[in-house]
């Protein structure tokens, strides 16, 4: 890595963006400080970029100049002081961080629409069955993780250009500038939609980017609207293409821009899960020719009774009034009631089955 070339390139780039390169260049104290910090950042992480993303530090440094020049000086200082590559990137993009509004659980047929989801039209007799894989999806949050960074891989998205990106079935995301891990997403099968923070970096003119399902029709709504040279971000839900032969999402950009994407969660079809069940039990000794009437212990909190029954040691030891379940108004109670028909003591046993639907 040619550190002298990096330093010179970054310094000149910052000066050009500041409009201070002329026949007799003059550099203000702030420009000098900004240039020093920019060089420090590129020198500090150049080897990492070359090793992790197979991109030359010089090229990465040139692409970073517009961002480094427009970043507030305090954020630039935090980026230079950062001990991790992700921390450095987060500091540079801090002003673009959107307010994360978590999507609701049970998203119905998610579609991109201005960074939010809208349900598909339904006929009057349409019903949504809980657990229906075609109409009911389950949201799974993940620790925010970078899956796209065109500054590190792929280069800028050209004006009116479209680029495909992979989200599911990915071992690591370095091929498209993301983390060198699967982000706890790439190993998940059956992802229907992804929730991603998209950030446009230093677009050449005002415009927008739109993220949508790969192979789908470009929606009219924008995912991120941006101004020239600004850093702009937005949270969006993007359906994924299920065809393993292609990418998962496409991103269209009106202007030339870099793009960063951090995944924060995904939607998957519901999974059939077995009931969680337990039981309660009680015994009572009943004297000869005596009536008995006792309640079987109630189910634990969050469990509902699904069945109950009573028994005696012998087949004809009792005449039953209530053997297990008994509906009383809106409630279903569990009782053992009857008469000991023998000339001796009998043991009456009662048990209730209690079940619940487990959370995913």
What is this structure, in a nutshell?
20% of the residues lie in helices and 34% in strands. It is α+β, with helices and mostly antiparallel strands and 360 residues long.
Summarize the SSE layout with pairings:
Layout: H1 3-18, H2 29-53, H3 57-70, H4 73-81, H5 85-92, E1 112-113, E2 116-117, E3 138-149, E4 161-165, E5 193-201, E6 207-213, E7 224-226, E8 231-239, E9 249-253, E10 258-268, E11 276-286, E12 291-295, E13 304-311, E14 318-328, E15 331-340, E16 346-356
Antiparallel strand pairs: 1-2, 3-10, 4-9, 5-8, 5-10, 6-7, 6-9, 11-16, 12-15, 13-16, 14-15
Q: Whole-number average pLDDT?
A: 82
Can you tell me the CATH class of the largest domain?
A: Mainly Beta
The strand count comes to: 16
The CA-CA distance between the termini, in Å, is 50 Å
Tell me the domain tally: 3
- Gyration radius over CA: 32 Å
- Shape designation: elongated
Q: Segments where pLDDT lies below 50 for 5+ residues?
A: 20-24, 96-129
Structural class: alpha+beta
Using the coordinates shown, work out and report the CATH topology of the largest domain: Jelly Rolls
CATH architecture of the largest domain: Sandwich
* Main beta-sheet annotation: 4 strands, antiparallel
**Order of SSEs:** HHHHHEEEEEEEEEEEEEEEE
Q: If strands are numbered along the chain, what order do they take across the biggest sheet?
A: 3-10-5-8
Percent strand: 25-35%
Helix proportion range: 10-25%
